[in-house]
């Protein structure tokens, strides 16, 4: 009986299956090497060579689903295509901080649920203490740091169950994917473990080498002279990859150290120092900063700015965090608290309603928004029910306050960071600094320094969201500046009026004092006897003193004018020219007394 063509083709494929798989893998490796040397293609940033390699590997996995070399090439192809979430989903069992329970209640121990929810190849890398929650530190759990040594022990404990040297690539590839996804502690543990295992494998292989084989010129010859299977295993662990992994690990450690310093400063009630360390992480020009890690750092800096009394800057950081991740629960909580503290009740109510929708979705789906390995700032699913119960009466209370008209009573002094009764210069300085920092066209440029991984939001969506929220905050600042400036102008006008009133009171007091002095002078003049008002001249032998007092009575109006002007006392030297005396008498007038003191000199 003749064999049909489909059966013949099937038999031919079954006989040449190994050869086909080898050819596909070789072509996939060559395509990956070409993708590593070529730039990104188009706006999507994808390599055509990496896409071709992924297609070849998928064809191999259809024929052999558990082939280790094909799995490695698939993970590296996804990494070259920047599909980090696919890598994490593919190797999620090796992520140290990945939750193990499959049910909605994540407070159960991982040891009791590993038998029902995990497969035989899943490694137990979590301790039951990870899922314990502390109510006192629930608000700031997203700032807690992991113990790197603990993560190392977990990874090594998991790796001890599979001692095959072919699985070393999992730690290196997954470590790079975790870094781009913002899982810095997991990335540090995985990269350190992969590098340590690669060094141990290199030591085992170099036992039979001579001393001359360790020179750089002979390393390539040793790799070429090695068997094909060993050469294939070395292709993924080339020298360039080891160097890049070392640089990436150093960058991860630097970011973790800076964030740990910022968290320690915030715990020590040093908000200015915490802001400085968070700014070092966010404003760094060197290295790559994944946007999930930047989102958590923005929320941490917002908490530090709120502690230092800079409400506008704190709201701006929350706006940036929500532009990167609209479903980030800690950012929504922080911005709602900030808006309520400055009296913006309408905006606060909108954020709380958005937060309530996220809680409802989490309770409906039985998990937090996003993948199970995605960091949510320390928020755990076990807290959602209690937070939802506490949020409902708060929303009702805010609705009542808004209905009563309290939505317009915004504390613009707290928003701009100035004291009540501030001067014009203080207000203008604070407004100028906030305007320069929080302009809508500048607030959208922060996303250019970050790496946006394969999420549903692209750079343009982030810019639009950041620009919209920054424009709302900018309008609120301008309104607050106008309100406080009107108050300052009213205070300045009142101060000028008070100064005028004080000057008028001083002039009135001076006039009253002058009138009292005039009255006293009139009384003294009336009390002087008639004989004392007769002019008398007393001329000594050497010193002649002439006192002339006119006896005519002075009218009351003339005396008052003379007292107000202060009649001068003329002093001079008597000489032979009598015209001077006549001039003095003509200036003084004959209707009022002129006190004249003359000193005579001997001729």
TrEMBL record:
PROSITE patterns in alphabetical order: DNAJ_2
Protein name: J domain-containing protein
Signal sequence interval, chain numbering: none
Listed CDD domains: DnaJ
Region annotation Disordered: where it falls in the sequence: 101-124
Domain J residues, every copy: 411-482
Naturally occurring in which organism (per UniProt): Oryza rufipogon (Brownbeard rice)
SUPFAM superfamilies for this protein: Chaperone J-domain, TPR-like
Biased composition (Low complexity): 102-124
InterPro entries the record matches: DnaJ_domain (IPR001623), J_dom_sf (IPR036869), TPR-like_helical_dom_sf (IPR011990)
Gene3D superfamilies in the record: DnaJ domain, Tetratricopeptide repeat domain
GO CC annotations, alphabetized: endoplasmic reticulum
């Amino acid at each position: 009986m003749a064999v049909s063509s489909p059966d013949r083709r099937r038999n031919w494929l079954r006989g040449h299956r190994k050869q086909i798989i080898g050819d596909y893998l070789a072509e996939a490796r060559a395509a990956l090497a070409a993708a590593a040397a070529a730039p990104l293609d188009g706006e999507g940033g994808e390599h055509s060579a990496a896409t071709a390699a992924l297609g070849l590997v998928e064809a191999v996995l259809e024929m052999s689903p558990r082939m280790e070399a094909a799995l490695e090439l698939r993970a590296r192809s996804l990494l070259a295509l920047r599909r980090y979430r696919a890598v994490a989903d593919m190797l999620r069992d090796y992520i140290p901080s990945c939750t193990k329970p499959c049910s909605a209640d994540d407070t159960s121990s991982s040891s009791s649920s590993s038998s029902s929810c995990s497969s035989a190849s899943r490694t137990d890398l979590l301790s039951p203490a990870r899922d314990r929650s502390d109510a006192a530190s629930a608000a700031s759990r997203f700032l807690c740091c992991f113990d790197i040594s603990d993560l190392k022990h977990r990874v090594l404990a998991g790796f001890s169950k599979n001692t095959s040297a072919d699985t070393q690539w999992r730690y290196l590839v997954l470590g790079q994917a975790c870094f781009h996804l913002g899982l810095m502690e997991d990335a540090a543990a995985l990269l350190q473990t992969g590098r340590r295992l690669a060094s141990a494998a290199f030591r085992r292989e170099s036992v039979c080498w001579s001393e001359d084989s360790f020179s750089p010129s002979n390393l390539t010859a040793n790799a070429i002279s090695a068997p094909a299977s060993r050469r294939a295993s070395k292709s993924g662990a080339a020298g360039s990859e080891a160097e890049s992994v070392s640089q990436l690990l150093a960058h991860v450690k630097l970011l973790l150290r800076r964030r740990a310093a910022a968290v320690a400063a915030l715990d020590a009630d040093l908000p200015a120092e915490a802001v400085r360390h968070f700014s070092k992480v966010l404003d760094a020009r060197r290295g790559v900063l994944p946007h999930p890690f930047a989102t958590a750092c923005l929320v941490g800096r917002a908490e530090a700015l709120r502690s230092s009394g800079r409400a506008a800057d704190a709201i701006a950081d929350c706006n940036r965090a929500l532009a990167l991740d609209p479903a980030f629960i800690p950012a929504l909580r922080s911005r709602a608290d900030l808006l309520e503290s400055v009296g913006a009740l309408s905006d606060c109510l909108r954020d709380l309603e958005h937060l309530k929708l996220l809680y409802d979705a989490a309770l409906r789906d039985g998990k937090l928004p996003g993948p199970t390995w995605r960091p949510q700032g320390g928020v755990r699913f076990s807290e959602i029910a209690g937070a939802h119960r506490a949020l409902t009466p708060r929303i009702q209370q805010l609705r009542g306050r808004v209905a009563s008209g309290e939505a317009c009573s915004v504390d613009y002094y707290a928003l701009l960071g100035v004291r009540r009764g501030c001067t014009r210069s203080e207000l203008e300085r604070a407004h100028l600094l906030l305007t320069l920092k929080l302009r809508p066209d500048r607030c959208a440029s922060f996303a250019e320094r970050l790496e946006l991984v394969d999420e549903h939001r692209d750079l343009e969506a982030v810019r639009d969201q950041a620009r919209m929220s920054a424009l709302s905050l900018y309008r609120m600042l301008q309104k607050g500046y106008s309100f406080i400036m009107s108050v300052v102008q009213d205070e300045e006008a009142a101060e000028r009026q008070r100064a005028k009133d004080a000057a008028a009171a001083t002039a009135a007091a001076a006039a009253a004092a002058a009138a009292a002095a005039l009255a006293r002078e009139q009384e003294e003049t009336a009390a002087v006897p008639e004989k004392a008002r007769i002019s008398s001249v007393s001329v000594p032998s050497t010193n002649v003193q002439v006192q002339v007092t006119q006896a005519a009575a002075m009218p009351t109006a003339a005396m008052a004018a003379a007292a107000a002007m202060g009649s001068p006392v003329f002093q001079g030297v008597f000489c032979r020219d009598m015209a001077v005396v006549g001039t003095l008498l003509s200036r003084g007038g004959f209707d009022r007394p002129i006190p004249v003191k003359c000193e005579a000199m001997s001729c």
